[in-house]
Amino acid sequence: MTKEAELRQSKMLALAFFAGAASLFVLTLFLPQNWWTGLLRAFSEAAMVGALADWFAVVALFKRVPIPIVSRHTEIIPKNKERIADNLALFVREKFLDTESIIALIRRHDPVQKVAEWLVKPANTELLGQQLVRVGSFMLDFIEDSAVQGFIRRAVHEMVNSVDLSKSAGTILESLTRDGRHQELLNEGITQLAHLLDNADTQATISQGIVDWLKEDYAFIERMLPSELIGRKGADLAVRLAAGILNKVAADPRHPLRQRFDVFTQEFIERLKADPSFAGKADEIKAYLLGDETLNGYLAALWEELKGWLKKDLHSEDSSLRKRVIATGAWVGKVLAEDPQLRQSLQDNLEAAARGMAPELAGYLTRHIADTVKQWDDREMSEQIELNIGKDLQYIRINGTIVGGLIGVTLYLLSQVPLLLQ
């Protein structure tokens, strides 16, 4: 049975009670007038009054009752739609969406523990793998749509065009070099260069370079000198000199080489941010990235190959991606189940995120509820509320009929007490 049918049925039942009371009242007019007739008349009169009063109360909630003076206090719900919307939204916000209620909900249900318990079951990780494979397959089909590809291409071009590569690079370098962090990079470079110079192959290369230099520029003298020995000694001398310089730079935070490195770094950053020539180079790079047919063709072919492999794997019964998802899900579940500290940390972070997001989320949902209700048509809103709670309200009319009748009987009996006492 539909809600409309249930509402009509309940209204007919309430009307039947009123009709019964009215029929009883009419009947008492034709019966012999005695004590019992008076009792029935009192019951029927009070029952009709109770039924009519409660009918007025119920109808006045939803519709205008054209009765002088009191009509302005009818049609309560349509007239107060704005206030109802605001109060409903406020009620939802205070009782369901306040921060402490959301935190209590998280603590009561312990979502991290439930996720761990869910993931440790092989059937669930298998289901997770299947669903993610379906999502991945859908996304690949979605991306293949020509309109979507055009949108992605335009978005990428717009993003690249809107980025100032030169200034961005300067800003990034400025952040990376703040508080002398670039000196740590210099220290690492010195360490790596020292290791390189200490390598036997490097020293042999330097020695051979000296010999080759003598043969090319001083061939006559080289034939009279022990060039191999000179090469080894020269390489050893060069390594010791370079190592000495590197050790001095590494040991002295105020070494002139470090200061020159600071100046060079700062000047380079400023040039990146302000020099037109650097900006021009950056524009050339962007134009090359966006317009070079060879590069874009290579990237397109690479993407097509990757996409083809992904689609083939996703549709395979023995999908390696699905296996990896399943294995990863099982591993995550196992780690969460065995590590209470990790679960507590995730729980704390979840609560912290809820505390940060709850006020904004509550405000958005509150505005959404209030605005939605305010946009409803007055009559439609009234009809929908009546449709959902009107059935229960009809029982108020039925109860009013019965209670009114009982009150009438009670008053009639009280009125007969003096007669009985005589």
From TrEMBL:
Signal peptide: none
One term under GO cellular component: plasma membrane
Keyword Ribonucleoprotein: no
Entry-linked Pfam families: DUF445
Key words, A-Z: Membrane, Transmembrane, Transmembrane helix
Domain of life: Bacteria
Record-annotated membrane-spanning stretches: 12-31, 43-62, 395-414
InterPro entries per the UniProt record, alphabetical: DUF445
PANTHER family named among the record's database cross-references: INNER MEMBRANE PROTEIN, INNER MEMBRANE PROTEIN-RELATED
Name this polypeptide is given: DUF445 family protein
